[in-house]
Amino acid sequence: MARTTNHPIPHSSRANPIEVDGTSFALNGKNISYRFHVDSAAGDLILNHFGGPVTEDPVAQIIPNGGGWSNQAHLRREFPDLGRGDFRTPAVHIKHAKGFALCDFKYQSHTVMKGKPALHNLPCTFGSSDEVATLIVHLWDSCSAVAADLSYSIFPNYDAIVRSVTITNKGRDTISVEKLASLSVDFPHDDYDMLQLQGEWTRECTRARRKVDYGLQGFGSSTGYSSHYHNPFLSLVSPSTTESQGDAWGFSLIYTGSFNIEVEKSPQGLTRVLVGMNPCQLSWPLNPGESLESPECVSVFSDSGIGNMSRKFHRLYRQNLIKSKFVYEPRPVLLNSWEGLYFDFDESTIYRLAQASANLGVKLFVLDDGWFGDKHPRINDKAGLGDWVVNPKRFPNGLKLLAENISRLEAANSKETLRFGLWVEPEMINRSSTLYEEHPEWVLHAGDYLRSETRQQLVLNAALPEVQEFIITSVASILENMPVTYIKWDNNRGIHESPTPANHHAYILGMYRIFEVLTSRFPDVLWEGCASGGGRYDAGILQYFPQVWTSDNTDALDRIYIQFGTSLVYPPSTMGAHVSAVPNDVTGRTTPIRFRAHVAMMGGSFGLELDPDALPEDDKAQIPDLIALAEKISPIIIRGDMWRLNLPEASNYPSALFISEDGNQAVLFAFQIRTTGVHNYPLLRLEGLDPSATYKLDGERTLSGATLMNGGIQYRFGSDYDSKVVLLEKI
Ligand code: DGJ
């Protein structure tokens, strides 16, 4: 019996992003095709192609028994299961009431629609009927009366396909979903490299590339959150792929909880990629009639390198993921009190810091940790979390009055007055708090096991409706009673003890409800995510918060690595990046203020995190001009495309070019890490410009796009940590 089809569905993306011929399906992007069909014998979904555009299914000769020991090993299955002869890692694992763990999902029907339905309680991409089309394939396991709906939405302009899976129990017994990958895709016999973002606190999003080898390899998080350790993102590339050349597939999970990414090269040479929730923290019970939705996984393909893959993610996430009204708005230059004062402040020091900020031209003053707690004041990190009342000792006249006074300060060199922002960490609780005295049962715990602490704090169980209401009410009351225009939402530890594995996902669903309620009720507030820096920098968070504090490491050299790594998937507009004092508190390194500021300007939310009055006079004197430059180029960073020209891992001269949406302006960042003595400076070849256009560089010399891209441009650098920021304007 034939196991493949070879339907000549034409690649006509503009006319029809989804084409169906019987039970063969084609999803057509501008520059991609994704094609699969129903195997007529097994009813299984088999992938024919995911890559550059094709006009028919690539010819595949499937040998009936695989030519080897297993009869499924050669199949590229869209929704691989467990226990029926596919010995690779499965996308789905369900435990039935009778104890067996098989599934046998067969094609039943499909639905095609313009636009895209939203998930019910998870963040997800959105788009109009002109932007996105959706195919839902309905699968059915008649042995256990369980349905699986595979949803594929294609955004043709971004060559992006979004997949999610819904499992529905239509039987009479309760089942348990042990594993459910949002995405499963089987690549044909070939060699691949995998690229991931690994890290730690202060070292987030470090690029790591390795060869995909036989057997299972992968990474994930079991911390309860997406975590510093591994980001929920994977890229599969050809071994010769670079930033600007070659095939690159990107997979990004829209989820903030523990996740699991598996890459398995089978003995037959096929490579399977699975992306989804962490199965060790799932065991999700489904009663008769109930459904479980997986998060969405976004897949993007680029045939012109990793940089192009990143730009597709950036555009898609800005346009079709981030809901905030600020997504395309330049952000106010801010000063955050943390590194300048840490916990050591009171009303007068805060007002002085706000005055100093305004005098430099800062537009938003942010009061970080330490402003709250009455009976258990938060004067260090041992107490107060959970008690969201103003510390009366530190602020005897109330914080509201201080915030109003700060909001009256005029920012130098502008007509604006200073805005006021506040730090919160509402998911957490210290034992030393009134909240813990009143509600010890709200804390995540597992029976009588020790409630183990990190940074002297415990985690509230956001899966509980009463905890959700407490958090919503606490944050809403701050926003209703003070002139707060910005919130930094922090989260400083992972989840340890949990009542059940399923509680991990339930917690995240609870948090999404909280974020949804608060960000919809307060749409004019600029929300910034944070988790000890970038411990929760993921596509799920971006649905609600248009920016994230990228790392607690503000050392400018390290930040080039961190920000370039983060930009692999997340738009630069979403990165919080601040200038801090030197020697840097994390690394001890000293770099010039210009270098620190130039690096921070590559992030969408530029700011300062220092006490200006403690700076050397010369450094302080440079800040107003650096702020003016950051504000001038901000629209290009926020809305433009980023081209990583030289990577810090590969060059002493890392550089990036940001090009405005209309292509009329660009800003070049060029850095020298170490001075190299008598040595020629490299020619920096730009990318992404219009070769036939002429560009004026910093209002001075003019060069054509062709010369800038093919010939390059050379800059003279001085000492270590030197930098240039150059504005290009098309004339
Ligand atoms: C961790 C954050 O990443 C820092 O920026 C700061 O807000 C501290 N928490 C405050 O406790």
TrEMBL record:
Pfam families: Glyco_hydro_36C, Glyco_hydro_36N, Melibiase. Its cofactor is Mg(2+); NAD(+). Gene3D superfamilies: Aldolase class I, alpha-galactosidase from lactobacil brevis, Golgi alpha-mannosidase II. The keyword Hydrolase applies. Residues 654-728 form the Glycosyl hydrolase family 36 C-terminal domain. InterPro entries: Aldolase_TIM, Alpga-gal_N_sf, Alpha-glycosidase_related, GH, Glyco_hydro_36, Glyco_hydro_36_C, Glyco_hydro_36_N, Glyco_hydro_b. Its EC number is 3.2.1.22. It catalyses: Hydrolysis of terminal, non-reducing alpha-D-galactose residues in alpha-D-galactosides, including galactose oligosaccharides, galactomannans and galactolipids. Keywords: Glycosidase, Hydrolase, Magnesium, NAD. Residues 44-287 form the Glycosyl hydrolase family 36 N-terminal domain. Hydrolyzes a variety of simple alpha-D-galactoside as well as more complex molecules such as oligosaccharides and polysaccharides. Belongs to the glycosyl hydrolase 36 family. Homotetramer. This is Alpha-galactosidase. It comes from Aspergillus cavernicola. The lineage of its organism: Eukaryota, Fungi, Dikarya, Ascomycota, Pezizomycotina.
